[in-house]
Amino acid sequence: MSEVAALEPFGDFHSALYFRDLYLRDETLYTEFFCPFCGVLLDPVLVYAPADQEIGKSPHFRTRRGGAKHYSGCDGNSSNYQHPTGKKPVQAHIEKRQFSLPTEFAEYVDRPPRPAGGAPARAPTPDEIRRRREAAGRRYGVARFRVSLVQSLAEAHLAVLADAYEKQKEHGWPDTERQSWIREVLQAPIDLRGYSTTYRGALHDLWFPVPKYPRVFHGKHAKVTANDDGYVIMSERPGKIDDDNSTRPFVIIVSLHDVDEGHLRGARRALLRQLERAVAEAASVRWYAYGRAELIDGRFELAFDGANIGDLFVKMQKHG
């Protein structure tokens, strides 16, 4: 596409997550980006990474190397910008990281049509920049790292784990220290489609009993099989019914009955490619799935179809 875009007035990381989520959803591309306050030309970083690629740091925008910097009085954020991680100990950790955690997992809403933005005809004055930043702060308040695809949450979680191992090597931490660091970082808050919790509360790896409300379940070494209706992903770890360790198999069912595969784009098309490869190569996958797991016929089931297929993410794992 030859479109240009003036960023939503939420600052670099927030806007980058918005545009990456848009790209992952339907591969919408913009060729140029401009600061919403001073109009300087920006470069996207990791915004257009492949839809099936895990990323190790947050997508963001930066001023072009060798190009103009933000104009006087502008840093790309609204004037009352606050880091959205909440508690200071967690904030201190995350601000030292090379990526940031989304703070809101929202239902996908089609992007409303609007004309493409662009750079101002002239460089705004410092007073104009100040008024724009203040107006954005009054209108939008504290920026939210909002995403609508579970892949974005998966990338954030996997980046935390990868960063923890890097820090363990760098500082010579024992495993207990690494786990403690992960727990502290995952105290970061998140709005899980109307339910306020932390990343630790939002993510569920089946070590604990399966709750009766939606969570982001996840696991690894899962096996994928194909059937007449789509795919079945069998979790390596079963779901617990209660604290007495009574368990039942945990499966993810992908129904393609109402899905026109020829019209799938972005993350949804990448998902089907991953499932196809996993079956063809008899490979295992790492998976993340948002939803309410129901106990049906002696097993826990999470069901996905054309309406909610963006709430599932799988990644092929290497053999061995």
In short:
This protein is of the alpha/beta class and 320 residues long. The protein contains seven helices and 18 strands.
Overview of this protein structure:
The chain has 320 residues and is of the alpha/beta class. The chain folds into two domains: 4-152, no CATH class; 205-320, OB fold (Dihydrolipoamide Acetyltransferase, E2P), CATH 2.40.50. It contains seven helices and 18 strands. Helix 4 (150-171) runs antiparallel to helix 5. The chain is globular. The two termini are 41 Å apart. Residues 83-96 have low confidence and may be disordered.
Which characteristics define this entry?
320 residues, alpha/beta, OB fold (Dihydrolipoamide Acetyltransferase, E2P), 8-stranded mixed sheet
Span between N and C termini?
A: 41 Å
Q: How many helical stretches? A: 7
SSE string, helix = H, strand = E? Answer: EHEEEHEHEHHEEHEEEEEEHEEEE
Uncertain stretches of 5 or more adjacent residues: 83-96
Q: Name the beta content range.
A: 15-25%
> Globular, elongated, flat, extended or rod-shaped: what is the shape?
globular
Coarse structural class: alpha/beta
Region (Disordered): 58-87
Biased composition (Basic residues): 59-68
